[in-house]
Structure formats: C-alpha cells, structure tokens
Design goal:
There is one protein chain. This protein folds into 2 domains: about 90 residues, Sandwich (Immunoglobulin-like), CATH 2.60.40; about 575 residues, Beta Barrel (Maltoporin, Chain A). Helix content is about 5%, strand content about 65%. It has a 29-stranded antiparallel beta sheet that branches. Strands 9-10-15-16-13-14 form a 6-stranded mixed beta sheet, with no helix packed on it. Strands 2, 3, 5, 6 and 7 form a 5-stranded antiparallel beta sheet that branches. A hairpin with a 2-residue loop joins strand 27 and strand 28. It starts with a helix and ends in a 21-residue tail after the last strand.
Length: about 800
Amino acid sequence: MKSLFLSCCFFSLLCETRAQVSGRLTTAGGQPIPFANVLLLKGADSSLAKTALTDETGVYRLERIGPGNYFLRLSSVGYQSWSSPVFELTALRPDRDLGVSVLQADTAQLGAVVVRAAKPLFQQQVNGTVVNVENSILTKGSSALEVLERSPGVIIDRRYNAIALNGKSGVLVMLNGKLLRLSMDQVVALLNSMPADNIEKIELLTSPPANYDADGNAGMINIVLKKNRKQGTNGSFTASGGYGYREKASVSLNLSHNTRNITLYSAYAFSHDRSAVDWHAKGTDTLPLLGGRDSGDFLSVINPISNSHNASAGFDWQVNPRTTVGGSIYYNDSREAVNTRNRGSYNILPDSLLSLDATINGVNHWNNLMASIYIEKKIREGGKINFDLDLLHYRNSNPTDAVSSFVNAKGNPVEGNDTLFSPLQKGLSNTRIDVGVGKIDYVRRLSSRLRLETGIKGTYTRTSSLSRIESLLNGAWVSREGESNNMLMKEGIGAAYVSFNAELSPSANLAVGARYEYSNTRMDNPEKGQLITERRLGKLFPSVFFSQKMGERSELQLSYTTRISRPAYNDLASYVIYTGPTSIETGNPLLKPTITNTLKLGYVFKGYSFSVALSRDDHPIVRYQLTSSSDGVLLEVSPQNLVFENSLLFQASLPVKVTDWWTMNWSLTSGWSRYREEFTPVPVSHTWLGYSGNFSQTFRLPRNFSMEVSGSYNSRLYEGSKKVDAFGALNAGIKKELKNNGGTLQFYMTDILRTMIFVSYYGALTKEAFAVKSRVPFRPESARSQVFRLTYSRAFGGGGQGKGRAGSQEERDRVRQ
C-alpha cells in the first residue's frame, strides 16, 4: 500500500494542472513564420516569465505558467515586433489561445544582417554525441563518408568497407532518421558519393530510446540534412574533381519548391571513382591441398572503377492544420568493375616450390528501389498519430571470371584432377531482397509534465541467394560440393513499444520505455528441399534515460538500454566468393544475434563533455575470421560469433578557443575490453586496452579564406582472433568564399602523411585453422598515393530537403555485401 500511495502521489504531481498560452504567427499574406521569438512578459513590470520559438508551421505553445497577468511579445528578423494586450490566467481559466497573430514586414530593411550561432563541434547528450559538422570548414567539398570518418569514436574500415562506432561493428546508419537498408559496402559507397555541404549535423546515438528499433548493438548514426522552408524554388549545386591513384569526379543537384502547404523536393548525384588498393600476406600454414607445412608470400592488387547514380524525389502536403501526407521514392544504381591480380609463391617443405599467377575480373552491379508514404494526424490537443508504409527492393549481381596459372618450380602445372587447380574458373552470385514495413506511432501529452509515446511495427523480408564457383575440368564446367549454395530466407519481425517522458522538475527529466520484439527467421535450400535453420526469438528491450541540470552550464546524464544486433542478410547467406585455389569467402547461416546491455553516465560542463559506459555483449559478431570447410580441405573466411565481450568505455570532448581566429576541438575515446572466442582450434579469452582520438583546428584568415587541419589516431585493436596495428591520418584543406554570393571554392588533401595502413595478424592471439600464421598489411588508395580534391559549391535560393519519413528505418542496414 505504501508503494501504491507513493506512486499515486508521484503521478499526481506530474499531472498537476498548470496554465498554458498558445497561438499561431503568420505574415500579412497568411504565410507561417517559423522559428520566431515568443516572449511571455509579466504585466506588472515587463519582466521575462517564459520564452519559446514558433515551429515550422508558425505555431507556438508556452506551458507550466503560474496564475497572473501577462502579455506576449512576438518578433522575427525582417518583421515589426508585435505585443498583445495584457491578459489574466487563473485557476478557472488556465489556458489562453491568442489565435492567429500577424507580423508586418519591416520597411526599414538592413543592408546585410548575419546571425552566427556558435555551436560547439561536439555536443554530449543523454542519447549520445552530436557533431555539428556545419562548424567545420572542410564540410564543403568533402563527402559524407569523410565527414563521418572525422567524427569521434567512428572508424571507417577501408579493408572491408565497414563502419564501427566505439569499437563495435553493429551500427546502423540513418539519413534524416531513415535507415539506409543497403549492404554496408553500398552504404559506404553511397556516403562516399554524397556531398557533405547539405549536412547539418551527425548524431552518434549510442543509447537510442524505445521508439527506435532495438537493432544495432553499437547504436545508430543519424546524418541530418539541412532543411529549407523558404518559399519558392531553391536548390544547390556541387561539382568536385580530384586525383589519387587515378581520376575522381562527382556532381550533385538538389531542388525544392515550397508553397504554403506543399513541399516538393528532388535530388540527383553521380560519382565516378577509379582507385587502387592492395594487401600483401606473408606467413606459414599447413594446408592438405598443398601437401604439408609451407611458407607463402601472396600479393593482391585490386583496381576498382565505380560509377554510381542516386536519385530521389518526394513531397509533403499539409492537407489541413491537423493532417499532413507525404511520400518519397529513392533509386540507386551502382556498378563497380573490379580487376584483381593475385601473385603468390608457396615453399612447401622440404623442397617443393609452387607459384600462382591469377587474374580475376568481375562486375558488381547493385540496384535498389525504396518507396515510402506516411500520414501524420493530430487527433486532439497534444495528441498525434503517424502511419508509415514502406516497400523496399534490392538486387545484386556479381559474376567473376578467373584465369590462373599454378605451376611448380619447373614450370609444369600442379598435378591433380581437381577443380581447385583448374586454370579457368568463374563465379556467379545473385541476391534479391524484398522488404515490406508497416508502422503506427502515437504521441500524447498527458499533462504539462508527462508525455506518452507508443507504437507498433511489422516487417516481412524475403531473400533469395544463389551462388556457385565453377571450374573447367576435362572440357566441362563443374562445381565441387561446398562451392554451390542456394538459399531462400523468410523473416517476420513484430514489435510494440511504450515510453513515458516525465519532467520531474524544471531541471530534471526522466524517460522510461520498453520495446518488445518477436522475430521468426527460416532459411531453406529450395533446390534440395532442405531446412537450413529456423530461429524464433521474443525479447523485451527496456530503456531508461535521466538528465539533471546542475546549473546554467552543467548537466548530469544517466541511461540504461538493452539492444540487439541481428546478422546482416548477406552474413547469413551461404554465398561463396573465389579468393584463391585454397580459400573461399562465405557467409554463415548459423550466426546468432548479439544482445547488448549498456549503462552510461555522462557529465557536461561549459561545453566540455565526459562519459563512461559499461556494456555486456552476448554472442558479438566478428567478420572475416578463418575456419576450415566442412570437408577439412579449404580455408574459409566468414563471420563468426564470440561467446561474450565486456567493455568499459570512457569518452571526452574538449572544445578550446585560442583566439577569435583559431579554435580547436579534441575528442578522446578509450576503453577496456575482455572477450572469449571458441571457433578457433584453440579457444582463447583476451583482455586489451584501446584508445582513439580525433582533433580539428580551424583558422579564419583574411580575404574570406579559412583553413582547417584535422587528424585521427587509433591504437592497436583486436577483431576476434585478428590483431590490428595502430593507424591514423592527417588531413588539411583551405577554403575561399567568393564575393557577391558566388559560392565557395575548396581544396583539400586526405591522409597527407600516407599513414592510413591497416596491418593485421593471424595466429598472433591463438592457433588458427590450418595453423595459419601471417602478417597482412592492407593499403587503401590514400596510402598508395595522396588524394586531393577541388570542389565548387553554390546555393541558389537556399537549397532544401523534404522531411522524409520511413517505417523501414531498421531494415535497410541489415543488407550488406
């Protein structure tokens, strides 16, 4: 009874009735005035009682006001201020709706007024870190991927085209709150072709609340584009050219047309990139195919030529003050022609020497179509309901042809009537993924201090994957057992969530939520009529967020979340990719999902932010691990599950203003991790301490010039049984703002010192399959030759993006190559 009494007192306090003042602000022509200043002043002495801003439709609402006499003062740049008559708020009449107020245009125009908001580059929030990339002068001319790479805790792995956040790879990437449900290869390619000039900020959500899907154990990265509500037709244009190993070019155009009730938007971007990467493996192993213990030297040089087209269009229509309808369509077509030259020598003890010379040519063609529609309805004062429907279609084709020469010391072909040693081989890989998503969200303000959010979501996915490797043997194309796979996967996920956000006091806020998800995944081999695996999982994912202001410039933040990271669709697919006569790359249909529990404490003081997080991962997924094939003949490179991983992570962000023209930002992430793996021949537990740092320094120079120097460093890290040496990069750029709104011109170089080299070690931590011990340096393009770009960018009329919505936020990132 005591607990029940305290609970009733608590909710009675939250539901206490306080007065509110509301209204709408427009121009003389009836157009809404967004983001105008709303001041509530006391009638007795004109002292300030409350402040607010109008929203995008010109609506404002001031809540939790005590009884008394007040008046409003409304103002916006370019308009004459307006003050209301004094009115009284009482217990009998606590609410006051002032209706529509009109601001007249200010006839005394200023020649030029520039208002600059000095946001720090990094901001710590209870859900994660916000990177205000608009404050970086290297934004224009950079790609979204390069901006993301300079963000704290983010690692772009050029070896595998992967993205990690705070040392974990289970991260989902969103664009305006809309997940990019592409393969991670395609996400990286898309972000690399996307101009960063339109990016407002990047949200690194390490602790997303319950209204987000529970997927992504490392969290979510949300790239927020600038939004333009200026009436009329607006747009922006960016063109970039560069050179590294070979030529690079990109062009993008964004257009929007805004009227009072309708927003139309579209965008197109094309990118071309010709680059080169290589990896060089030296080591020893004991492969049955080669007859015993051998030492090898293997060099692979990869020359991709990629062309990508991205097009999107959409609309937002405010049917009436309570109803908004919108839709969007997105299309991507990417084609990458890849030439790979492999050369290897194998010294098989005691005296046998074999040589490999292979050329592999392939074309990886990926296209996808995403269509979304939504309805947003205000059903009563303080209440809103959203309906979302999304249809997603992906298709990938990746044929390859290999011509190889595998000879002994005398130049004679290696004997053996085996497909693995055939001089002619070809690969086929076709994948099709179709996803349907339906989602309903409901938001209701129960009182001035309590808000309810709840919703349901359903997702259905159908994936078909067919792949094989064929060898020319005795005049016929044949395939070995284990080199051909045919898979059909069907997956259904149902979810429901509820969340309460309570304002405990003017300085304290508490959000408590829970999300339940049930998934059913079934994989079959339709050719053989065999069930590969079927898995059902139902789980509750709680979340708690608390923030307490401890003065005007400091805040304490605390959060607890439980999340899941489901295997990417292509990680589960049993595809096979030819990498050499003794090894293949494949998926793992037996992968388990990762469950992560995280407790995080943060503190912000005068722009400086610090946080510490404790997390537990069960069955974390690590990719590109070495195992033996089922017949014990081939070396397989595939994703695997660890048993667990415990982590303690510390983060700090330190903005420093040296002078009015010189500012610095420093970010440090360090952590202790302990994990155990059991997929290697000798299981092992390992503990390690890692750290990474980012910095940027901005110099504002005369004649509208500015310069920025940035860099990053990552200490030694471990990925399952692999050890990876430290790596880092130094970047610099200079920008010129042209006169008379002529746009901007920027030149920049990445990895100036050519230090972005990833050196991996197999067999350094424990015994690998076939006793492999090797050192493998991987050099991306910037480590082979310095990469520079020259970019011109100009906006006409402002440039903008539509709102864009999707209930498929959590499906697209599970598609990876």
